[in-house]
Amino acid sequence: MHIPDGLIPPSVCISGYALTGGMTWYALREIKKDSNPQANIPKASLLTAAFFVSSLIHIPIPPTSIHLILNGMMGAILGYYAFLAIPIGLFFQAVMFNHGGISTLGINTVIMGLPAIAAYHLFRLRDKVPRNRQFWTKVLAFASGAFALLLSATLFAAIAISTISPDLDAAQERNAIYLSLVSYGIQAIIEGAVTVMLIAFLEKVKPELLNI
Amino acid sequence: MKNWQVLLWLGLNCMAVQPALAHGAKIEYGQAAAIIIRATYDDGTPMAQAQAVVYSPEDPTTPWLKGMTDEKGEFTFVPNKDVSGNWDVKVRQSGHGSIISIPITEGLIASEEKPEIDRVELLSSNSDLTPLQKILMAAAGIWGFIGTALFFSRNPSSHQKSVRQ
After folding, report:
1. Which CATH code is given to the segment(s) A10-210?
2. Whether B141 contacts chain A with CB within 8 A
3. Global model pTM greater than 0.80
């Protein structure tokens, strides 16, 4: 769901950059509250690598194929670091593989970064469950992975529908977008499952990584 | 019905329809250089039934031609050969798509190396890279991130020691 260059009006690109700028400032302020912000950078960097390559791996789901976004997983594990990691990953996807675009980097960061932050807050709810923590961790991991992807798909569809250029057949394009939402629903389940697997693994091997 | 009424009715009918003075039809034919566009997603699947819009260099803001790609993601159009310049073609489907600029002079693709090409590939991404190239690029990118991770996970005390020495 990367928006490529040249398909959306400049006003949307510019407001995307403005929103990303504001959110980055806020994310940096939140990160500064950490006692040692550098300690989390290796984790953030490795997950950025995962985010960067995941878009290259295509999973065929007829009629099209999808690729993983993993923004919910990034949010659940990285917290506000995810909002810094996502534009970096998107930048490298755009310059190396022409996936997305430089002018749309801002709006793409909004589409994928905001749901990541939402996923972080959703996953944090596990600190509030009184018992059966392991079970709730898995449930919340799935929920954050799937919910972030669905939120991204909704944002993407909303932006795509509101910026259909008048040169196109709007009704047909709208239908195509609604149809694509179905495959995003399947993708949400896959992403939720991936997030559960990774978080369950981390909880067994290195549970302190999950406390951000 | 009186005779004059029938005549009036016939006369009105004749006025209502387009005058077809001759009933022969003629079809002419000629040859023109067409431009074929092929749109694919970055995993190589064709963008079938996507909307294609062509903009002429004379007026790059209003569409010159609209159409749909076929099952193979192909779309063909014949540019006006009197108009030279960059013809833009946009292909879009469910928020994905791309735009390509085709330099055309006198109805032919202006290209110094291959003047005979009549085929332009429009890709939502870079399928001109081989899978090996892609893997190498991805590996280089991943190595960059791993390097960053290693740099920040170095032991701070050993770093200070090496500075002191």
Report:
1. 1.10.1760.20
2. yes
3. no
